[in-house]
Amino acid sequence: MLTDTFGRKHTYLRISLTERCNLRCMYCMPEEGVDLTPGDHLLSSDEIVHVAKLFVEAGVDKIRLTGGEPTLRKDIVELTGRLHALPGLRSIGITTNGIALRRKLADLQANGLSLLNISLDTLRADRFEHMTRRRGHERVLETIEDAIRLGYNPLKVNVVVMRGVNDDEIPDFVELTRHKPINVRFIEYMPFDGNVWSDRKMVTYKEMLTAVAKRFPEGLERLQDPKGEVAKNFRVPGFRGSVSFITSMTKAFCGDCNRLRIMADGNLKVCLFGANEVSLKSALKEGATDDDLRAIISAAVDRKKAAHAGMFEIAQTRNRAMVKIGG
């Protein structure tokens, strides 16, 4: 049920645990905030495990927990353990801003958390407050060090690059990979509702490569990308860590897409940039059987298009704010 009409087998499921977040990042959430879905309209932990089990039985072997900020969910440690126990699941990860992660990280690791992405768009504390509209920069840096000590290798650091905001820090982020097992992942700025996207703010993959070359004349060596990988992976020769570029806007990777998304309200989204959604929460509420759910999921996957629209078309298409999708 997870193979679409273009032969793409979907083995990667992203599950948003909450729409709430403790930051207000300019590319993720409108400055005025968002209207949160009432709690009784969100997936419960039992419903998350129930639905995830169906996906794993159908071939999903990787789950990533997202948000909002997933660490704000009170039962995230227990929920991670329940998901980790699903037969056939190979790995479980989380994408987090790191603010509230530190005190939970060891317990999450003990409950099966094997992959960790921390979002950090600047290495400057003053700029962090400007970009996130909150404090907490030092806490994120401390969490990164804790994660390395706990053995996360690579520890992935997600950086959304915006022209005139943080693009001057690209070489500084690359420098993080010199002695540490960090994979810095530079992400092209993408349009979502409320983030005031424009192509003038977007720094392209080629421009990022040029910025790296100016600081590191030894250049970047190309690494082999795993199947289904969304990033183009490199390493500065001799550095311990690596550098990746996620080129959703200028060099789309739709042909190899293997991911699906379940949002906190239970809607299944088969493409990050697609407006079409189907509610698994409503189906569960109406008493759908597992076979009913499989049919709903299969039909949604079959409707997945060969590729998303161009970046200017995407910018004109109504979609949710990133904080409500889960990335």
Short précis:
This protein is an alpha/beta fold and 327 residues long.
Q: What CATH architecture do you see?
A: Alpha-Beta Barrel
Q: Return the string of H and E elements.
A: EHEHEHEHHEHEHEEEEEEHHHH
Mean pLDDT: 90
Extended strand count: 12
Q: What fold name goes in the CATH topology slot?
A: TIM Barrel
Task: Using the alpha-carbon principal axes, give the shape.
Answer: globular
How much helical structure, as a percent, in the residues? 25-40%
Radius of gyration based on Cα positions? 19 Å
Integer tally of domains: 1
* Uncertain segments: none
Q: If strands are numbered along the chain, what order do they take across the biggest sheet? A: 7-8-9-6-5-4-3-2-1-10-11-12
Binned strand content: 15-25%
Number of helices: 11
**What's the assembly state of these chains?**
single chain
Structural class: alpha/beta
* Relevant CATH superfamily: Aldolase class I
N- to C-terminal distance: 23 Å
Major β-sheet, in short? 12 strands, mixed
- CATH classification, class level: Alpha Beta
